[in-house]
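Two folds, back to back.
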Amino acid sequence: MDLVSEARGATKVILEERQGEVFAETASVPGLRKFYIESYGCQMNFSDSEIVASILANEGYTPTTDLQEAELVFLNTCSIREKAEETIRHRLVHFGAMKRKNPKMTIGILGCMAERLKKVLMEENQLVDLVVGPDAYRDLPKLITRTDDGERAINVLLSREETYGDISPVRLESNGISAFISIMRGCDNMCSFCVVPFTRGRERSRDVHSILAEAVDLQTRGFKEITLLGQNVDSYKWQEADQNVNFAQLLEQVAIAAPHMRIRFSTSHPKDITDDVLYTMARHDNICKYIHLPIQSGSSRILDLMNRTYDREWYMEKVRRIYEIMPECAISSDIITGFCSETEEDHADSLSIIEFGQYTMSYMFAYSERPGTQAARKYADDVPLEVKNRRLSEIIVKQRDISHELNKKDIGTICEILVEGESKKRRDQLKGRNSQNKMVVIDKTASVQPGDLVQVLITDCTSATLIGEIVNA
């Protein structure tokens, strides 16, 4: 029996006792201790919060979206930029004021910031009861018990094996349409600016059986879209006996196992995404034609300082290859401005790479030095803040202009969108994304509901959004 058939069959042992069902049962039971989670940062953090919720629900706790009624309050944190950590510190001040009014409240710091700052968090903030790193969530029930006994608890040990593959996440605030599936954890790419290898540890891949089983389970439950998550999904590799599964093979098996679901993935490292992945995407209609391919800088000199393991020309050839195999594919990126020693010439290279890549959107940031990274140890953070911000503004304007021009080209075309829900700006409109991950808004109609796949004629656009009307609804 092949892996796809196995996932479809009775061998879904890992997910048979779904914590999601346990959660559904415990949520309605009065008197259970309630927990509240705020998540910050990348999609992996939000996925991890669902794992935490599952672990706690299995122990009899129940989630709440009302901070005022929570006995257990958790912040799932991010350390990728200084601003993210500042946000957490401000939230801790707010939570601390609440705890002074309710001494029974337990405050916990989870995730990357917990691992990076460790005991410092407890030393500088006596209101923090728990500090738990991303590989120690199974230990949460024991740590909570220790805080109940008046102790303060910490576990930030990193693991070379933990993938949480046997845990079915509780879909917090789920729209019942889209869901994340974590396929691997950690990162082996030692980019000089990045703290992820230090906060999330080395790469390890989740077993393919549990991934396929979770995908099939979500399809059975009516979900319409999944995103395969990892710090670098393209380096996924799983071995068992005589079987070796790489990311291209996993992607194809998920697409076959869940044929009625859209498949997305994030994030790709340019050095690892292969032609096999691209051909797999092209072969399967249910794999979305969208790749997030971070460049970080358009300058080969800066890329070398960043330890990105590729130069400008190599990256450009990868982009050409994507468009050659999938002309309809959309690409997005990450750009950092003001990295150590960046010159105006380096900055000009970043502006031109946006033009070349024709990115539909980018995540754009000014460089923020992170303690403990190679860049912090070896290079001076010598670009003045006002220069960083001016260059960032120029990058943003360039990307906005490119995005707008690309969106204009979609006017008059028909695309299929997955309706996600009500538009944030107008209650009389619905929003959804097409295969290229572009947001599309349409007028509400009684015949279209969230979760529907509908054909839409694009009639107008902004730099961030396509505007359309339903065709043959």
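---
second:
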Amino acid sequence: MPDEIPIAKPVAPVPTIQPAPPAGRKFPCPSCGARLDFDPTVRGLKCPYCGYLKEILREDSAEVAERDYIDYMEREEAHGKAIPGRSSETRCPGCGANVLLEDKMVTEKCPFCLTHLENKPEAVHTMIAPESVLPFTVDLRKAREAFDAWLSSLWFAPNELRKIATLGQLSGIYLPYWTYDAMTISFYSGQRGDNYTTTESYRDSNGATQTRTVTHTRWTSVTGDVQHFFDDVLICASKSLPADLITDLGLWPLNKREPFQPDFLSGFKTERYGIDLKEGYQNSKRVMEPIIIQLIQRDIGGDHQRIHTRRTNYVGVTFKHTLLPIWVANYRYHERLFQLLVNGRTGKVAGDRPWSWLKIARLVLLVIFAISLIAFLVMKAKG
């Protein structure tokens, strides 16, 4: 009888044990298994179902690093990398926004224009990862209250607007920004105008001699230079939202920024910058320019100033890539898309809105009728 062949017993796989999860990896709630999202009210990762909370500790000892602009531009390719936990992106066919997707998560609509996103995410191309973030402190409830208050304050809004607008879903988004620091030295040439007065005689319409004071300007040539340090010139790196709405969001407490931690992004969408570092730097120069002109005018002095030439050197330029929090609501009225933004730190609202021309026409007719009635009563009283 041939020897029996022994059958090997199945061996259970040995689990891989890691001392800590990879950076940016979001694990389910240890209590109920649901996904943890960042909650601005408690500054931590919170389970929306059972209330489990994992606090995000402050890195008080860490400082947000400044990066040398010239050095980085020379070695840009060597520094590019994705945000931990957001290794894929998809481009909106409607507004062109590049939305960074959380790993193993799928988004259906663009948060900026409500266009359905094609489920074809690609690996994140080389990008400059953020080193700082301004976390949300305005939660969804407060953002909704600000939204409702804004709607209630609108004059001549269509009656159905509130019903339509409240159907719009508020989405929390981290918007990309650049900040630039630079020491500027500006050399100029121009003229200084100083006013002086003289008294002259003239004849009036009756032929009588009169005197009057006449103001003249004496111009002298001037040259000089002014220096100024620009700190945190803020440039929005998104092309997905109207520039006027971005401006209307008001000032940001940039001194409250914190070193970047991927946990702050959990549960929120993040946009990849559409304005790159070089273009952002050129935009920052346009922001600095009117301030430099004011400094030159002040240095020239006098009552009037003329600037003929100016040349500015930018020294020690540094930059930071930072993410700032906003809530975005989109709603459509008569096939037109309207957007409303809420500052995720201050609660300030910026938005565009439709007008009810019927209500405006009624008011105009009412004013005309009131004026006509008053005129009729006045004429009747005189008669």
